[in-house]
Amino acid sequence: MQFGFLLEQVVNGLVLGGYYLLIALGLSLIFSVGGVVNLAHGAFYALGAYASVEITKYLGFGPAVVISPLAVAMLGIPFERYILRRFYTADPILSLLVTFGLAMIAEQAIRIIWGAAPLSASIPPAFRGSIILGDFLFSRYRVMLLAVVAVVLLGVWLLLHKTSFGRVVRAGIQRPDMVAALGIRLQPYMTAIVMLGVGMAAMGGAFFAPITIVHPAMGAEIITVAFVVVVIGGLGSFWGVVIAALLVGVVRGITIHFLPAAGEASIYVLMFLVLLVRPRGLLGERIEKFE
Amino acid sequence: MTRYTRRTLLKTGAAFAGASAFGFPSIVHGETEKIKIGHLTPLTGFLGALGAYATLGMRMAEEEINQAGGIMGRQLEVTSEDSVNPATAATKAQRMLEQDGVPVLIGEINSASALTIMQVADRNKKLFMQVGARSDALRGKNCNKFTFHVDIPNTVMVNTVGKALLRDNMVKDKKFFTLTADYIFGHDLLNAAKRFFGANQGNLIGDELIATDVTDFSPYLLKIRQAKPDVVCSNLAGNQVTTLIKQYAEFDLPYPIVGFNLNTADAWAAGDGNLAGTWPTVWYHTLDVPASKSFVEKFTKKNGKPPENHAWIEYVTFKMMAQAMNETKSTDTDKLIAYFEKETQFDVLKARKAYFRSWDHQLVQEAYTFSPRPKGQAKDTWDFIALGAAVPEANEPLEVINSTKEQNPCSL
Fold this sequence. Notes:
Chain A is 73% helix and 3% strand. Chain A is mainly α and 291 residues long. Chain A has a two-stranded antiparallel sheet. With 412 residues, chain B is α/β, with parallel strands linked by helices. Helix content of chain B is 43%, strand content 17%. In chain B, helix 5 runs parallel beside helix 6. The longest helix of chain B is centred in the first third of the chain and has 28 residues, at 6-33.
C-alpha cells in the first residue's frame, strides 16, 4: 500500500510538472535565443490570469483561456521591440535589472488596477470533481490541463523542428553570426519567440487561475520555480526543460510524502545537485555565444 | 500684457491679507501641534490584501476623527508604511518612534512582525496597539506592558469554531487531520487546536506543516486521502487558506473541512461553490447591529466595496485610541496604559461592548462563526457567506471563550 501511495505522488508530480512546463518553456526559449533571463516572465503569467478572470465574466471559461494568452502575446511585440532588443548584446546584468524592474512595475500596476485583494475564479462545472482510476485519485481539471499542455508541447516541438521558422530559430541559438551571413534578419524571429514565450506564460496563468489564488504577487511566486526548471533542464534544450519540469514536480511530491517540511526546499537541492554534476544542466548544449 | 485694475489689485491684496491673518497661522499652528501615530501593516506578501483593507479602515477613522475636531482639538496625522517582514517592521517601528517622534504605534497583522514591533515598543517604553496578529504567544509568554492586542487570539478562534463542532457532534472520537502554517502563528494555532481536541476527546491523526509560499496543495491532499480522517482542519494563514479551499474543492475529497482561521477577504476570493465548512471571524459586514451597519454603509459608499474584518478592526482601534487620548487629555504612555487597564468599556460596533483585560492586555469581545450559503443563493460576491450567532451567548460572560489565567503564562 505504501508503494501505491508513493506511486500516486509520482503521477501527481508529473501532472504538476506539466504545469510548470508551460511557464518554463517560454522562459527557456527567450533565454536561449536572446540570452536574456526574462525576470518579467511571471508578470505575463499574472496578466494572463487576470485577463482570463475578466474575460470569463463576459464570455465564459472556454473563450477566456484562448483570448487571454493571445492578447498577452500581443504585449510581447512592444516588449521585445522596445525593451529586450536593446539588451541582447549588452552586459547580462542590465537585462536582469530591466526585466526585474518591469516585473515590479507590472505587479504594482495590477495592484492599482485590480486592487490588492485576490480575485475569485472557479473551475467550470464540466471539469469539477475527481476521477478515481484504480487506487489513484486525479482532479478532473488537472487531467484536462495535462492534455492541453501535451498539445501545446507537441505544437511547439513541431514549430521548432519541422518548419523553416524553427530551423532559423535553432540556427540562431547556436550561430547568430552565420544566420546573419546568410542574409536572414533574426529580429522578426525573436519577436515571434517572445510572443510565443509570454503567450505560453499567460496560458499557464489563465489555466491555473481557477485552482490557485489570483493576486498581484502571483507572478513573483512562479518565476523562481520556472527559473529552477530552466537551469536544471539546460540552456537551449527543448527536452531538457520537459524532463526538468516533470522531475521537479515528482521530486517535490516524493519529498512531501516522506519529509513534508522539506517539500519546497527539495527543488533547490535538486538544482544544486544537478549543477554540481552537470553545470550545463541535464541536456544543456554548449552554446558558443554564452561560453 | 494683462492690465489689472486698481480695484482687482486691492481685492486680491485684501484676500491675501485676510488669508494670512486667519488661514495661514492656523495651518502653521496645526502643523506643529498635530498628533502623530505610526502605522505599520503588511501591504505585500501573503497578507498584503488584508493590509490593504486595514489601511482603508485606518484612513476612514483618521478622516472621521479629524472632521469631528481631532484629538484634544488637534488634528491626527497617521504615517503608514508597509511592514514587509519582521526585521523591516522592527526597523521602521524604531525609526517612527525615534525620528518621527510618534507617541504611539498601531497596526500589524503578521504575528512574527508583531512580535518584533512589540520588542521595539518595550525597549522604547512606548505604547503599541497590536491590531491584527492572532498568535496566542504574543499575549501569552511574549506579552509586555506596552502592548495591547485587539484581534481575537488563536484560542478564541478555536473555541468559537469548537463550540459549533461540539454542537454538531464533530469532535468526540473523531479523527482530525490538520494542515498548519509553518511559522509562529500556525504553530500557535496548532497548539490551541491540540488543547481543544485533547479536552474534547478528538484524535489528531496527522498534521502537515506548510511553508507560507506553498501554492500547490495536491501532494498534501493525497496524503489526507491516504489517512482517511473524519474531519480536515486548516490552521493556515492569509491567502494560503483560499488556495487550500479551491484545491480541496477541486480534488473533491469526501471529508468535511473546517478551519480555525480564515479572513473574509480570503473567503471571498475562494469563489461561490468552493467554500465549505465552519470558520471563525471577529466581525462580518452583515452583522445586525445598527452602529456596525452605519459603518458598513459609510465605508461602502467611500470605497465601492464592503469592509473586510481588518478594515473594521483598524477603524475601531483608532476610535478607541482617540477616545483614550481625549479622555486622559494626554498622549503619555503611562496615562494611556492606565486608562486601558481600567478595563474601560468600548463600543466596537457589536451587540456587546468590549474591554482590555488588565492582566494580559487582550481585548475581550464577541466572536462569530461563518459558513457558506448554499450555492446560487448569494446576492453578490460578498454575500455567499452567512454569519452565525455571536459567541459566547448573551447570558454567558465574554471571558469564557478566552484563555484563563491558568492557561495563559502572561505576566506583565
